[in-house]
Each structure stands twice: as C-alpha cells, then as structure tokens.
Amino acid sequence: MIVRNIESLRGTERQVDSKNWSSTRLILNDDNMGFSFHETILHPDTETKIWYKNHLEAVYCIEGIGEIEEDDGTKHKITPGTVYALNKHDKHILRAFSKMRMICVFNPALVGPETHDQEGVYPLLTTRDKNV
Ligand code: 9YT
Predict the structure, then answer these.
(1) Would you list the domain boundaries of the chain?
(2) Is the model's pLDDT at 132 over the cut of 60?
C-alpha cells in the first residue's frame, strides 16, 4: 500500500512549477498504478494552451472558478464539482479567473518531470528518461 501526504512532497522533485501552474504529483509511473494522480494549482488570471496528444487526462475542480475552451470555440464554466475528461486528446485553452485547485489523473502515468512544450504537449517519457 502507498500512503503519502501532499505536504511531504512540496518542494521535492514531485512538485513541478510552470508560469501558470504548479503540479504536485502524488502517484507516478513508478508506483505501478497505470495512471498518475496530481494536485494542480492554477494561478489566478492565467490562460494556458494545452494539448495532451500523448495522454488522456481527467480533471476535477475542487476550488476556484475558470473555464475551458474547446478547439471549436465552445466554452464550459468550471467550478468546484466540475470534472472534464480529455477523452479525445482534445486541444483546449484553460482559463483560471481565480486560484484554482484541480485533481488530475493521467493515463499513461507521468514519469515525473513532464512539463508543457510550446504546443502544450507533454512528451511520452519512460522511467529511463526520468532525469532528462
Ligand atoms: C489542468 C492541467 O492540465 N494543468 C496543467 C498541469 C497538469 N494538470 C499536471 O501536470 O498536473
């Protein structure tokens, strides 16, 4: 069994920070669960273009207000209790109108250090790539 508290992961290599968000990765590929499980804090008044072409992601909002815009311009409000699932590797824009706290699940599991490239894509890494 794996039991961890997020506070013990803050400031370690399991916390990945970018300009618009901070992701603390509670469960990763080497935990062998078939998915990774993260808490993502979105910084207020940010807009992030994302395209997980190598991954599926489900995102559950537990704090804050924002919106997700699909590639065709359709917008959906996000409030606590909203889940979205990028079941078609959907390109999207994520806007945070306040600080937002999201619970995110990735399949395949992230290895650890993944962060967005210019297209908002995460590379498909294996454990061997962990220190890239
Ligand atoms: C909601 C979202 O995709 N934000 C970017 C960070 C990502 N959730 C992660 O790596 O935890």
Answers:
(1) 15-107
(2) no
